[in-house]
Design goal:
The chain is α+β, with helices and mostly antiparallel strands and 706 residues long. Helices cover 18% and strands 32% of the residues. GO terms for molecular function: serine-type endopeptidase activity.
Length: 706
């Protein structure tokens, strides 16, 4: 076929591959995955687990299975005729400069920048706003293949020292390197085996950090971690002599975090047994010998300290206020009985930052941003004028600053950085996205549909203007629904591929998320988890009923807890969609708490050991256990060999059993990324490759003609 016969919508990519669509992919047979006689007993119920051996990610036979499965997957994907042209097109779309909002440390202004296709974004700095930018840290030089990433940096108050974390191959286990910012010379030894930690400097003497003892037996990636500890590292001393500040054997299964107020007077410690609710502690560092004071002694609610003015603490909390509020209290008597309301709860969910001596109240209104500025006495000064309906993030800065920055985005608004004059409330454009995308050609609208129990659920649907809603549009339905996490509008360069080909992108805000506060979250946990699945099913049915798409043109996607969601869809409603993408999913609900920090997810899920009723509920919907011999949609499970948050065993076992039980002709593949983890820190090449394979698999199995 000559190029001149193509439609020039997207050059070669959107040429008509009618003849190619008629070809048949020559598939390799699935690996003969062995089965073992492993049975667990829960409350007198025997549960077979024939693929238990795949949990051992270090075993030779597991590694051989991974190699064999990847061979099957790459053989299939490699035969899709437009895959490489799609890769070239997505690389072209991706190849533009990307910036972060700037932040100030000492005399420098820092910002991240990616030239376009660099593996990792580079940290630059300049003097003030007008100085010449220079490279400060280039993570692309951390490793030859670009899979070692920069995962956070923290500066001393004077900006003279910095400690930064690196992740190798996407692992949650981090190393910390301390440098002098004047010349980037390294100070002291590299700290190792640090996990789920911030870094909180105390002057230039040292810093606080959190970690676990690394598992000594079995896999260091999947081994159970349950004793999180807060340490203090004094510069110039060995890590082995670091002082234990909080946590350890007496506080098992805690997530422990720490930070200092900007004036470094108060050390703030949070301790949580799950992803919801935390204890709160403070220590007044201005008073030598002062002890750690317990402010909140239970895990029923969420609390954080936004800052202080002298001894007056500002606390963001959802105690008695599921949508959050801000209270104040004197540090001398910080318990709840002394709290005074400053910014009361509203019908919209509140998060907050401080900067320039102000409080920025960032509300979620039907999953979109609404921002108000208050003084430190709780007086409303103004509502920040945002450029459109979407997501605004940032705002926080140091107390002495006169201006701050925020980023605004939506499904049709590429990330754009604005500078905010704190005194006047005026926003000015600071940095516009360079992506080749015209927002005027696209439409993004919010609808409300009815779930199984008549609850109204919001969903944002995005597509190119002029798209004919005839039920034939390739559609990707993406959701999460858990851990109080809110899905707010965000631009995706990859989605241009979908929408330019008449496709539709839909995101519902399911129960279990945080879009309507803790009440919304709790309607999708434990024995109410089915609400999340019902909400998603209703979203798919809405799209089909209203002619956005059809069962033959619908794909479903989700990652992590969202991977659990898609696994449940595959087992509960395999008739409802054509293609499924469960990514890094929690798929074995009886054993998720046996690996890494998985025990901390029990607030949302419950565990099989809690009660017979909880076991039966989990066993009934657990995707790995709910599979049975029948026809399933085309499925590509995705995971990574260094995922030490949701260990790849979930995906390995689920894919093996799904391949065993598939009675239809649709493919069941598992794509296992190497030198990658749960998602953070992937190189640009890895991200693009994963997106290309997703679109190629989806379009091919829908019979979309190019």
């Amino acid at each position: 076929m000559k190029l001149t016969t193509c439609l020039f919508a997207f050059a070669v990519l959107f040429c008509s591959y009618t003849h190619a669509q008629q070809m048949t992919i020559k598939t390799l047979p699935y690996p003969q995955t062995k089965k073992v006689d492993t049975v667990d007993t829960y409350f007198d119920t025997k549960v077979p687990d024939p693929y238990r051996w795949l949990e051992n990610d270090q075993a030779v036979d597991t590694k051989e299975w991974v190699t064999a499965e990847n061979k099957v997957t790459q053989n299939y994907l490699g035969q899709i005729p437009y895959r490489e042209e799609m890769r070239k097109q997505l690389e072209t779309l991706w190849n533009y400069e990307k910036y972060s909002a700037p932040f100030k440390e000492g005399k420098y202004t820092y910002f991240y920048k990616n030239d376009g296709l660099q593996s990792q974004s580079v940290l630059y700095r300049q003097v003030g706003d007008t100085g010449t930018p220079e490279i400060f840290l280039d993570p692309n030089k951390f490793s030859a293949d670009g899979t070692t990433s920069l995962q956070g940096i923290d500066f001393t108050k004077d900006g003279d020292l910095a400690a930064y974390q690196i992740s190798e191959g996407g692992s949650d286990w981090r190393k910390v390197i301390v440098i002098k910012t004047a010349d980037n010379s390294i100070v002291g030894d590299t700290l190792t085996d640090i996990k789920f930690s911030g870094l909180a400097w105390k002057g230039t003497d040292g810093f606080y950090y959190s970690s676990y003892d690394k598992p000594k037996a079995g896999s260091q990636l999947s081994g159970l971690t349950q004793y999180h500890k807060l340490y203090y590292h004094k510069l110039g001393t060995p890590q082995s002599t670091d002082k234990l500040i909080f946590g350890g054997d007496k506080t098992p299964r805690r997530y422990i975090g720490a930070y200092l107020t900007e004036d470094e007077r108060f050390l703030v410690i949070t301790a949580a047994t799950s992803t919801t609710g935390n204890e709160l502690y403070i220590q007044d560092l201005s008073k030598p010998g002062s002890g750690i004071i317990n402010v909140i002694d239970n895990f029923d609610n969420q609390h954080s300290i936004l800052g202080n003015v002298g001894s007056k603490l500002y606390i963001l909390t959802n105690i008695y206020s599921p949508n959050f509020k801000i209270v104040t209290v004197d540090a001398a008597n910080p318990t709840v009985t002394h709290w005074q309301n400053l910014i009361p709860e509203t019908k919209n969910v509140l998060s907050a930052t401080t900067g320039g001596g102000k409080i920025f109240a960032e509300y979620l209104k039907d999953a979109t941003s609404f921002v108000q500025q208050y003084d430190m006495n709780g007086k409303l000064e103004r509502t920040i004028n945002l450029p459109s309906v979407g997501t605004a993030s940032g705002f926080g800065t140091k107390k002495a600053e006169k201006e701050t920055y925020y980023t605004f985005t939506s499904y049709v608004y590429p990330p754009t950085i604005f500078k905010l004059d704190i005194a006047t409330g005026k926003s000015t454009l600071y940095k516009k996205s360079g992506v080749k995308f015209d927002p005027e050609q696209y439409e993004s609208k919010q609808v409300f549909y009815t779930s199984k129990d008549k609850t109204k659920i919001p969903m944002i649907i995005t597509y190119k203007k002029g798209t004919i809603l005839n039920g034939q549009n390739p559609t990707l339905l993406y959701a999460y629904g858990g851990f109080g996490i809110s899905l707010t509008p965000a631009f995706s360069t990859s989605n241009i591929i979908l929408m330019e080909h008449g496709g539709i992108y839909a995101v519902p805000n399911l129960r279990g998320g945080g879009e309507y506060g803790e009440t919304w979250h709790r309607k999708g946990i434990k024995m109410k988890k089915q609400n999340v699945f019902d909400d998603f099913i209703a979203a798919a049915e809405y799209l089909i009923k209203n002619k956005y798409t059809s069962k033959e043109h619908l794909a479903v996607s989700g990652g992590s807890n969202g991977g659990l969601l898609i696994g449940a869809m595959i087992t509960q409603r395999p008739d409802l969609f054509k293609v499924a993408f469960p990514a890094v999913g929690v798929l074995d609900m009886l054993r998720y708490n046996k690996f890494t920090a998985g025990a901390g997810w029990s607030y949302d899920y419950g565990t099989a050991e809690d009660s017979k009723e909880m076991f039966e509920y989990l066993y009934n919907y657990s995707p790995y256990h709910a599979l049975k011999p029948q026809q399933y949609p085309a499925t590509m499970v995705t995971t990574a060999d260094h995922d030490d948050r949701v260990v790849p065993a979930h995906s390995f076992k689920f894919a093996a059993r799904l391949q065993e039980y598939q009675k239809g002709t649709a493919p069941v593949l598992i794509r296992i990324e190497t030198k990658a983890g749960h998602g953070a820190g992937q190189s640009t090449a890895q991200v693009i490759s994963g997106q290309v394979d997703k679109w190629a698999f989806m379009f091919w199995n829908m019979g979309v003609k190019w």
